[in-house]
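Design a sequence for this backbone.
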């Protein structure tokens, strides 16, 4: 087998395996909200998918729960369970629309916003780090790299 293929597979595997309860990104976020004890303690228990759902809600403000599965690429039951857990932990508030009492909408609490803003800051830091790396390469090389990544992303067995 081509040694480059092995290297790429190993690098991608390493990147995916970093996504755990105590991954680098989460530790970075924890270090930036340690002064907010409640948010800090909750963040330690959150999965990456939880943090991404909080970020979506933060970007949208008040949002219908019905819209979250499509935006988050999570199933409706998973979103419902997660929203229930978030409400129980004071990460968000659930409301019913006045016009339609069957439609649930959610909005982040202060605690949820603290977690969301730590994620926004993390994304800015990642962007800055990637920009620093890419800026040292010619545009043509970066374009080729992006093209290769896109082909890997779309690879089907």
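Sequence:
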């Amino acid at each position: 087998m081509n040694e480059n293929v092995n290297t790429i597979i190993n690098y991608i595997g390493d990147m995916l395996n970093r996504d755990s309860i105590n991954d680098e990104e989460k530790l970075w976020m924890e270090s930036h909200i340690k002064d907010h004890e409640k948010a800090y303690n909750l963040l330690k228990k959150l999965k990456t998918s939880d943090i991404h759902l909080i970020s979506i809600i933060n970007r949208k403000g008040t949002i219908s729960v019905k819209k979250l599965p499509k935006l988050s690429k999570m199933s409706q039951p998973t979103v419902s369970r997660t929203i229930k857990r978030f409400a129980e932990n004071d990460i968000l508030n659930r409301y019913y629309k006045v016009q339609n009492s069957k439609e649930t909408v959610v909005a982040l609490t202060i605690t949820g916003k603290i977690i969301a803003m730590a994620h926004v800051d993390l994304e800015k830091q990642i962007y800055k780090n990637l920009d620093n790396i890419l800026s040292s390469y010619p545009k043509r090389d970066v374009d080729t790299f992006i093209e290769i990544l896109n082909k890997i992303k779309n690879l089907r067995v």
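The domain at 23-153 is CATH 1.10.10.10 (Arc Repressor Mutant, subunit A).
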